[in-house]
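cache lookup: miss for this entity combination. No prior model stored, computing from scratch. Input as submitted by user K.M.:
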Amino acid sequence: MITRLFSFPGGLRLPDHTAPSTGRVLVRAPLPERLIVPLLQHRGDPCEPAVTAGERVRRGSLVGRATGETPPVHAPTSGRVLSVEPCPVPHPAGLRVPAVILEADGEDVWSEDLPPPWQDWETVSPEHLRQRVHEAGVVGLGGAGFPTATKLRAGAKPGIHTLIINGVECEPWISCDQMLMLSRPQDVIEGARILARATGATRLILALEEGRTACLDALRRAMDQGPGITLELAAVPARYPAGGERQLIQTLTGREVPSANLPPDMGFLCQNVATAAAARDAVVLGRPLTSRVVTVTGNAVAAPQNLEARIGTPMHTLIEAAGGYCGTPERLVMGGPMMGFALDSDRLPITKTSNCLLVGDGALFPAEAPAMPCIRCGACAEVCPVRLLPQELYWHARSERPEPARDLGLLDCIDCGACAVVCPSRIPLSQYFRYAKSELQATDRAHVQAEQARRRYLLRQDRLTREQQAQEERRRRKKAALRQPATNRSPDPKAARQAAIQAAVERAKRKKAGAGGDGNDPA
Amino acid sequence: MLEALIVMGLLAAAFGLLLGYAATRFRADDNAVVDRIDALLPQSQCGQCNYPGCRPYAQAIAEGRADINLCPPGGEATIHALARLLDRDPRPLDPDLGTQAGTPTVAWIDEARCIGCTLCIQACPVDAIIGAHRQMHTVIRDHCTGCELCVAPCPVDCIELLPLEPDPENWRWPKPQSGAV
């Protein structure tokens, strides 16, 4: 147990609200008849579909092919592929991405082509472990969806020393990681050790929030079992956003990751507890990621609880499993109240990054009061965990040109929303910052594209010049060839032709003689 | 009096030589200026400025032959950036050249109608169309700048410009709609 902890700047205490959903044990969600499996459940490009309509699949069969760093997607149950088409996914704008629509056959059998289980993973090379994690389609289950293998590979470069397994669920209402640690502590710890081996880390820390005594006890009991390096437990103060990657590193080690660097540059790597458990299933059981724990909670759900749901399960199935709606549900949010986003339908599928479904009534999500002018009280700057100046950023973010906000560090904003919570003028600061950040990122993308277009344009100009020169050269030679015979052309064209034929005959003769000789004569 | 004239004359000659030397020794590279202007242009290579590409337009600005408000795809942002770089007053976009397009577009070839004439391939300033004589042509979406130069040469009118659909990669958050200051 790590006792010496540090702290990060800013942050604030938020009500926990996890009691309703942790009062019930973690159970499997019912298997729906139809599943929608998006081929984009991670950061990056969608996978190529590996199945066609009508094909039969089993649980764990490949449905989306991995390309490069893109992790694959697997069938969450056995059944028949109905179609592969763009479907709406959980996204703030309700965008559509290609998805495999699967009709479950109810047998729910595992595929026979699964990779072999590696109970003795201690003897497997880190390279193979990373490859296995990649092939199992494991992505960051904390919500970001960053491909885990890519992160492990970045961490496998020399210099990585500490692997932090992040079980700090700092956002109110969310309890899926907590329930996972409570019900599968051995798996989480074994997964943590597997990831440590895959990265070459020599220090392994599992962090969770203070006050989670049941979790802590369960983990303590499971800690001494199994192979792998020793694990240190740390209970960090419950101050939002303690679970942020950089904030957690600072809390545990006192070191701040600079803005220009990523944690691996400093020798740190963070992975979520659910990611660790998924990596364990991939390595020890050979099973790809086909399900995850989802918190279904809020004050407009009858029986808030955590459910282990198959990827692709429509959300309404889970909400019904949690007793259905009650009261007057006002809003359905994926994620927590701070960083989540509202959805316009409960027919959307659960993806690898869906950690929480929050259904609230008007009391939980009051109608947005009109924003008042900023009074420059500075409360936002006090709670900002990145030490930005939200009131300054806001000034630029609401203008027509958010570009100057870049120099004020807007891109370091982690979207935690603490500034908006404390704002006495109720300015939706985090919404402004999300908007301005996406504008800046769009500008960056446009620059990259412009650079590429410039290169292609210049290359084309070069090519056209070259072609023109070659053409002129040909023309010049032809002209010269025409001019040359004029000087030593024999007066009789007939004789000239005769001479040409004669010359050709002689050439052929010489060639023949050469071929008949030692064969080395180049003539 | 004479001494004063001699001193002044010598001083003038000395400074003249110094300035003359500096003018050649520290001469600003014309290409560097063109490069910096070119870096601010959107590189759509559309020719709406009546120059055959962004770089020729940059050259024309550098040589003082063209004004800075001739680039419709770049719009106001480009004009402001150019004005800052060249220390000139920003001016509104030349209305004769069209207006800034609202959403970015990419060219799309109706492959059923394409006859494989290669005219669009020759027109594309960034080589974003692939195909061969009497073979179907297609646009490489990621490379297309939406310049519309391929539309006019097509003899069967099978090229259209489609708005770029938002996907999770290029989607942007909308600006919050809250009223007060």
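stored under new cache key. Confidence is low (pLDDT under 50) at residues 517-523 of chain A.
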